[in-house]
Specification:
This protein has about 150 residues and is an alpha+beta fold. It has helices at about 40-80, 80-90, 135-145, and strands at about 5-15, 20-30, 30-35, 95, 100-105, 110-115, 120-125, 150-154.
Length: about 150
């Protein structure tokens, strides 16, 4: 899409798949929101391995290890040709900002509601639980820059 400016992104989302959770990210532009696959086989394998070996504690360790990798991947992808990025993976989705009715976000999940569908993801960046880190506030600010009062932060 021409004359499109990337405003920011929300990284480290978790979509629950059939076999293993998938990492997703939102790239927020002034015209649309892209839901992109930010998984890599290595981060998925690390998460599965840590969770298997150490249970819930292991899942937390894997999230801390992979959060920076997902953030870096998301930054790189947000600087790429977004139309090509959409075509590169059938799971990637673009939502026109005008079609988004609301975005509800809290420290555990995000719900994006359009007229036709609701997208629900867990927020898996471990820094989001630290109220002093600014990560959650940054996500909210990025979304509000484009969507204004459609964003409901709890």
């Amino acid at each position: 899409m021409q004359n499109e400016n990337v405003i920011g992104f929300v990284d480290n989302l978790t979509a629950f798949g059939i076999i293993a959770p998938k990492k997703k990210s939102l790239v927020v532009t002034d015209k649309r929101m892209l839901i992109i696959d930010a998984s890599s086989m290595s981060s998925t394998a690390v998460a599965a391995g840590f969770a298997y070996a150490f249970g819930i504690f292991g899942r937390g360790m894997a999230n801390k290890i992979s959060k920076d990798q997902i953030r870096e991947t998301t930054e790189k992808l947000s600087q790429a040709n977004l139309d090509e990025l959409l075509k590169s993976n059938a799971d990637n989705v673009a939502l026109d900002n005008a079609d988004i009715r609301s975005v509800e976000i809290n420290r555990k999940q995000i719900l994006i509601k359009t007229g036709e569908k609701t997208f629900k993801y867990g927020l898996s960046n471990p820094d989001i639980k630290d109220k002093n880190s600014g990560v959650f506030d940054g996500y909210v600010q990025t979304l509000q820059t484009v969507l204004g009062n459609k964003v409901i932060a709890r």
